[in-house]
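Dear colleague,

Thank you for sharing your sequence with our group. We've completed the structure prediction you requested, and as agreed, I am returning the results in plain text so they can be pasted directly into your records. Please verify that the sequence below matches your submission; if there's any discrepancy, let me know and we will rerun it promptly.
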Amino acid sequence: MFARLRSDIQCILDRDPAARSTWEVLTCYPGLHAVLLHRVAHWFWTRGLKWLGRFTSHLSRWFTGIEIHPGAVLGERVFFDHAMGVVVGETAEIGDGCTIYQGVTLGGTSLYKGAKRHPTLGRDVVIGAGAKVLGGFTVGDGAKVGSNAVVTKPVPAGATAVGNPARIIQAESDAKREETASRMGFSAYGVTQNDDPLSQAMRGLIDNAATQEHQIALLWQAVEKLSANRPAGGLVPDDAARTEHFEAGRLNDLIGK
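Please find the predicted structure tokens below.
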């Protein structure tokens, strides 16, 4: 028991730079308290003491702001960071090393009792603040769910799910788009990617800007080769043009933000 407690405390010290000491984690981290109380509630639940399990989880919710059904299964080194408003359903399973932030719901979409209604998280999954993972599917090992995403379909191992409804960033083109958007100071996280016309337009702009940057780089390479062989007194390319870059603020002005 004490070895498991030490592991729980150490995982928080490893993942939260704000954690300063073992004593601080033990006394001031509601995520740790919620995990410890859940183990008591789950022990009651699995031994047929259903009401006592529910009552223990109810007390835990009152003290920590984190609601974990006593029937849910938690692995080792699970970290609820801040975690106010987290809801974990009865048939949810959370794998070893997962990190879950505030406002997350691991919920169900079925009303059938006894069915697998809630998600299963693999090992080392990260669920961002405000995300909703709804349904009896699996989120693969090492996957990430972005803040405020609404996930209703399985997420492959190592992939990232973002947006509402969530889309999976796995293809090379999507990964490049997100990298380009981040470099420009604009990210598509938290917006509808498939149905929103504005989102579609933003994706087109990002792709177009990335293509233009590549073409400009090729042009400069050609200009540099010509300049190296230019005759004396020839024109010198204006290096000031190299400092021009895409203005992310103008993109925000176009969409009224």
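Summary note from our side: The longest helix spans residues 197-228.

Kind regards,
the structure core
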